[in-house]
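Re: How this chain folds, sequence and tokenised backbone to follow
How to read it: Take the token row as a discrete description of the fold.
Start of record: The labelled sequence and token lines come straight after this line.
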Amino acid sequence: MAKAARFTALAAVAVLAAVAPASARTRGLHVSSAPRHALQGTNARISVTVRPAGAACTLRLRYHDGSYQQGLARVVARGGLASWTWTVPTTVQAGQALATVRCGRAGSLTRTLVVVGRLIAPKIVVQQSGYSVRPGTTSGARLSYGLILHNASPTQDATSVTVQTNFVLADDHLLGTDTHTISTIGAGADYALGNTVSFPGAAPIARLEVVIQTGGFARHTLHLPTLANIHLVPGQFDPSWLGKVEGELQNTDPALTLRSATLSAVVFDQAGNILGGGNGFAFAALPPGAREFLSLGNGFDVIPMEKAAQARVSITPSSQQASG
């Protein structure tokens, strides 16, 4: 009796296997290759094997920020294989992304991959430039220029930034070069670089040519003092020319004493055009929360006072751990 029952059970299994649709036993969808990580700005590829072959397949890729990958066309699984290659946008949010493949009767599947954010090395660009020329009373000329430099990296401070400014004549020849090194330009920040140079003769400058080299980059840690009440002061002996840029400097770092600071200023007219620039220094040691009067007086007397409307000042601080 036990043998009969066992035979009946095996027979039932055999019947079920016989009546099961062939497609249920042969169709399927499997990942052939897929990345675990994908770097922003680089190519990624997903491949799947499909049964039955010839099925039309789609890939839908949803990024961590909710956006979807564009340009993923429908693919026919010729030879039982379907694949997609795309470029991961640099604008999508880093994090987990979901890739969903659907191949009709073959079914669907979902896989995850992690989008890795690309490190954006600092790129310093010149957002604005301008200059003024003042002929000498007997010979020569002086030129005051200003540059607004922007660190395009949102997360990295640019370090050891060398700025070479060439003064170009109308025939494309150079009349002179001025070079400065800025220790740090903060992530996503601007730096106002101003200076005045002298020429032994006339200076019919047609344009500025700026070459920028970044020595390195580092995680954003730069903390700058606060500037307030920035204003323009006419020259003491000739008020028709700009004399100084003055204001207040406050150490807002809670833990560091500001020992000194190098300051650079760019001067604008009423319409926002750059007229030139100059620089100065602050040497008083400021503990956290303290402030001091600020006066920059190097090189501004090339700029006509009647045209000058406002100034923008940038700081390169030197600090140490506050005592006590």
Remarks:
- The first strand starts at residue 28 and ends at 33.
- The chain has a mean pLDDT of 88.
- The domain at 27-116 is CATH 2.60.40.1930 (Immunoglobulin-like).
- The CA atoms of residues 88 and 243 lie 53 Å apart.
